[in-house]
Task: inverse folding
């Protein structure tokens, strides 16, 4: 439906903004917190949030993930870019090596609304000793995000000592599917998960999370561009909604060109 | 009393909805959280919440137990099914193997009222190192549920290291009766407990919980249908109000047919 | 002072209700929580709260101690009995064997006002590793109880590893007097303590708690009725205000007859 | 300035009430909590709060330290005595022997205002494993006390395992001065500290706390009266504002006579 | 822009007050809390807050860091000095030697607004076992400080066991840059960090924190004045905004003269 002045009158829901035509291509930029500046060494311009906002905009991304500090300092630039803002609500540095992973919620949902967020994100390390704390925090975030009209995205990464004792690794289909399912049970709209390595097993992940949407986590930069693009093709074939990628884009020589290749797979 | 248009004017209390004619037959579907997708392998359609809502409706269940995420995503479908909604307020994954069981409260009672819940459920592992936390959470839930006009159901499962040291297992009559009694002391309207193995000892459980109602927990699928149906007959004979069952129904080849057999025992 | 219709116009304070003529005879019924159903085996009718309410009323008790669940389910019956209701606000099961005793507060003072409570009770295990938590909770309860016009009763039971290391047991006069004194310092109106074994030492306990009133804790059923009645006589001689008793009444063959014998000592 | 009826019109600040002419002589009576009734054995009348209120009044003390329970039960008597009331907000029993000292806040500042308190007191065991908790609680208390127009007094007692490891004891000048300084940094109006043993080192303590006032803690009863009086003289010479004393007064045969001797030193 | 009476009409933002012409020269005086009176031995006058306020004013500092107690007791003197007040919100003593560093938040942002604060400061020991608690507290402080119109300054000091295990020390460029970056991610306006030892590596620190401003932490007094001044020159060359210095100024014989030398480097 269009109004008399030719513009669509239809309001886009937050989920539609991040998933136009049902597909998502999200640029992740919380590595400065999680891994520190070492991730910027490959491409020193990537240390500058402005460069990333440019990539997000010109690369046609449907979402940009940052921490609150960056969102606040570049509020105007992000708004102007029109890339939907995804606020990562938890984080931890890699300097501390604890017994089991836990990244606590750092900001309240109400602290990010005024920054123009379209979505909030939170990592749940299912299987960690601190699983309970994370389930509680994410469950609460979902309630508050939906009340505020925001999309809730779960970084669902089962991990920790208990898994190692059970000889499970964090890319086992059973493990990835379990994490994705917890996302649904807690009410996530989108879950970000590791790739399981093949189409069939990833289809099971997608099925167990349904109707929650599944996006693949980009992970560290693959040796060749082709390796990464092949993964993207497979997850799309398995029924995923898209990907959330960081280093595989902004550590490359030409992030925009590579973004284009990804875009063509996801939105073809 | 009936109004002039022939419909009963009498308001049904929430407890009457879940226990029409004083009997309860509840379909449990929180296993995706507690055990993960492995429970769906037996019958892959069971991964889909819509399939479970269909079984609850067509199988004549008087309650459906789900987590908040599923209740939110399928709010309309559950409302249309007219099966009373029971919101499970706590949960944990089986990926983490802690020192002693504890599944923390994930949602507030007020977070589930608008989803149309008739009841809330919570698991108390009496005897666990975290017994105190659970008693506190459940006591609070009962107060808030009753204030909001909801039924409070306790999953009363004594468990943990202390019991093992005392050579007690979680189906000992003493143990089951103690759990059921804590349910009454904390104000539960219904307690869900393990079967003690024979009618006489289960009658003691029912007596110790009185006037709180007792339903048997279904547990893992029994080898034969008869084994399960025999248990249902015994608990009903012992004075229980019914059962809460999951895998024993939706892991079977024909869940509806088996539901009918259970229904005939409980409501005969 | 009496009004024209012959009824006393004077309002009875909550403390006067529980201590008419300055003496208290309280029936304790929180054992279903603390010890579980095993305490009911002796006299199976004692599992039924209605039977206990009957004993409280017909036995002439000046207070009945129960947990919130029972108070809520039998609100009408307790009100009709006219026995002042004492809500026990904390509790723990004996299934868990922790490092040191702690029974956390389970209900807020405001959660029990509408149930018609005249008093609230709380156990402090002074000397336990969790002493601080209990002192904080009880101090808070006293403030809130007095604000709401309720009597605050402290179950003052010094206990735990630290005492064992110091070769102290929980009936040593030093220990009992210390517990009673903490009750005064925290503002309790009545403290319930163990008997020290002789009149003189119990007099010191009463003195150290003054002006807080002291009642003796009944404990497990004594072998003979005489043993228990002798204790009651001694504590009254030592200046105590009365007793709080459970098993020594409702585990006996004829609870009412035995109640009468106690009553005659306390109110003679 | 005096009004026409001859009474001073000038309002006395709470600090002036406790420190008339800039000097303080405070009677401490929280030992029933900290040490238990054993402290009353020396002089059994000291178990009775009324006796202590009498000593405070007739001995000319400028402050009386009690816990909330006693302040509440003897509210009228304390008000009539006109001795400024100092509410001790934290405490612990000596029955529990933990790894490191911590006495948690038991009452909120707002819980003691209506009891007529002029000041609130709190113990900080700097150097203890629980130093952080105590710093947080005391910092908060100072904010709230000042907002309510009350004086904030810090019992500054560095103590614990860390000190023992560093071969420091709690009367070392370095240690006492550090504790006193933390009192200033957190905003205490008065700090109560151990005596360092000589005038010169105590002068450094007074200097490091300035402009916060310093009073010496009385400690256990000294063998002779002279020993204690000599200490009082020295701390006054070092620039202290006075003392806070308990056992050294009310464990003596004639508390009033001894109080007079102290008074003459402090207010001479 | 100037008004008719010749005074600038332009309002100075809090950041402009602390960083006039984009440069900061901050006087730190929280050592009485962190190290205790031993830091005052070098120059005993430094124990007196008034002396420090005088140095701040006459030395031309653009900020003075104190704890709340001192800010409250010298509110008038600090206001009159016109040196912007920076409230340090957390602190710990060096008497306690814990497993890993953590200085908890002691005052709420709202507790310091009425004292006339222009900025608030908080130390984050990234890599410590308590990193999560500190990230949460500082993130919250940033939100509240900005809401109240205050500058948020992070003392970013990666430290703790995890770093030692990784053979990292707290002046490694990687470590300092990581700390500075966390400051940006959490929304700090200014970060105070250790010097990395050379211009090039410090430039990387400044780049990774951008657009958050970087000031060098003064640290313990250097042997010669020249050593310290050389460091200041280098950090300014690396693009830093200035320094925050304490002992290197007020432990010197002539603090004002040395302040002048620093000022000339920073504001030249």
Result:
């Amino acid at each position: 439906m269009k109004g008399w002045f030719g513009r669509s009158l239809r309001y886009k829901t937050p989920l539609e903004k991040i998933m136009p035509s049902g597909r998502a291509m999200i640029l992740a930029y919380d590595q400065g917190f999680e891994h520190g500046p070492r991730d910027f060494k490959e491409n020193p311009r990537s240390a500058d949030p402005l460069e990333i906002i440019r990539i997000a905009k010109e690369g046609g991304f449907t979402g940009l993930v940052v921490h609150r500090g960056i969102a606040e300092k570049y509020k105007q630039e992000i708004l102007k870019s029109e890339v939907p803002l995804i606020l990562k609500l938890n984080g931890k540095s890699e300097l501390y090596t604890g017994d089991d992973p836990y990244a606590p919620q750092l900001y309240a949902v109400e602290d990010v609304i005024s920054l123009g967020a379209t979505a909030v994100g939170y990592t749940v390390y299912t299987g960690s000793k601190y699983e309970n704390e994370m389930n509680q925090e994410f469950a609460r975030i979902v309630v508050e995000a939906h009340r505020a009209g925001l999309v809730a995205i779960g970084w669902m990464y089962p991990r920790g000592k208990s898994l190692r004792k059970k000889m499970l690794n964090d890319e086992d289909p059973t493990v990835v599917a379990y994490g994705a399912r917890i996302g649904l049970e807690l009410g996530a709209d989108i879950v970000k998960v590791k790739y399981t390595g093949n189409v069939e097993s990833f289809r099971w992940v997608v099925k167990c999370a349904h109707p929650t949407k599944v996006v693949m986590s980009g992970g560290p930069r693959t040796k060749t561009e082709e390796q990464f693009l092949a993964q993207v093709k497979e997850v799309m074939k398995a029924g995923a909604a898209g990907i959330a990628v960081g280093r595989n884009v902004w550590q490359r020589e030409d992030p925009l060109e590579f973004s284009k290749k990804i875009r063509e797979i996801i939105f073809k």
Chain E touches chain D through 31 residues (CB under 8 Å). The first strand of chain E starts at residue 24 and ends at 28. Chain E has a mean pLDDT of 96. The beta strands of chain E are 24-28, 63-66, 85-88, 117-124, 151-156, 190-193, 213-217, 242-245.
